[in-house]
Structures are given as C-alpha cells and as structure tokens.
Amino acid sequence: MEATDPAPGGNTAAGQLDRPLRYRGLRFPRDAAVLQRDVARQMEASVWQSAYTDAAFALARSDDRAVVLGAGTGHIVAILAGKLGLRHVWLVEPDGVRRAYVARLADANGLARLDLLAPDDIATVAPTLLFADLTAGIPPLVLPDTLRALALMAPAAPQPGDIPFAAIDAAGLGYLPEHSREQALVFARPNMA
What we know:
Layout: E1 21-23, E2 26-28, H1 37-44, H2 50-59, E3 65-69, H3 75-83, E4 88-92, H4 96-109, E5 114-116, E6 129-133, E7 149-153, H5 165-170, E8 174-175, E9 184-188
Parallel strand pairs: 3-4, 3-6, 4-5, 6-7
Antiparallel strand pairs: 1-2, 7-9, 8-9
Helix pairs in contact: 2-3
C-alpha cells in the first residue's frame, strides 16, 4: 500500500486525522465537518482568529460566568473553560454537528464546567462575559444587565445592522480599542474591563 492510500478508517498517511490537533495547550478532535484543512493549519500555527482569542485572554477572569454564542471551532469555549478556568461557561449553538463536536472537545480536555444553553435562557444564567460570533448566523443579541464585557467576531464586510450597536450602548458597554483588532470588537462597562 502506498503512503497516500487511505489507512483503515479512511485516514491518510500515519494516522494524521486520528491525531488530535493541538492549539494553545488544548486537544481538538480532527473533524473535517468542523475543522476544514486551512482552519486546522491556522490553529496549529496559533494564528486562527488570533484577535478573538486574544480578547478571551484579555477579558476573562476566573470568577466570570461566560456565554459563548456560536461554537465555531470550539476554541473560545475551550480556552474559557479549560485554559482560563472560568467558573462556568455556557454555549449557545444551533448546529447539531458543532454541538456534538464541542461535546467531544470538552471530553478530550476534561472541560466539566461547560453546558449547552438555549438562546432564550441567557439572562437566567446572569453572564458577566459574552462572546458572540456574528459570522455564525446567531439570533439577535439581547444583552443582560449583568454583563461586564462583550467580545464580538464581526463579519469581514459587515452590513448595516450586523453589529448591534444600539443594544451594546443600551447595556452600558463602551468600545475598547486597545483590545479590538481585525474582526474582533471588544466592549466593556467603564472601569470594569
């Protein structure tokens, strides 16, 4: 058998797809439905959505209760729950494939403080930190008054109305240019960032 022939289970040379991807000290299951090849390469090089990831490191505190809207690759959820050790992290993700992937990700990294949440239940958990991937087609944001900070992953070419500035302003959150770059937009209450 040549090295380019699929190995048992459909994987190629040396079980490349069986080996978990490493990103910021966490193990990510390889799943082509969630981690496309170019995304996996960027994650392995620690450049995948680096501005959004840096916002997680800059904003999170161990006593935060965080809600993540839109799982994406699961990297923000894993960093908040695993790497930064937040008290609790809830995920709102409408896509069943991504929810199942995050469950495997949580199991692979022992992320016991992670739960799924329905969009209508966000206010009931009184989050202090909210991450929202606006590229993932999430429902309109309702920002609870318990928020200390908000990080948004904006579309590459936002259209009018894509970024809920009126809701952000009504929640008393101000723009933090020192933590915002590329598509990552960060907001916080004054003197609470």
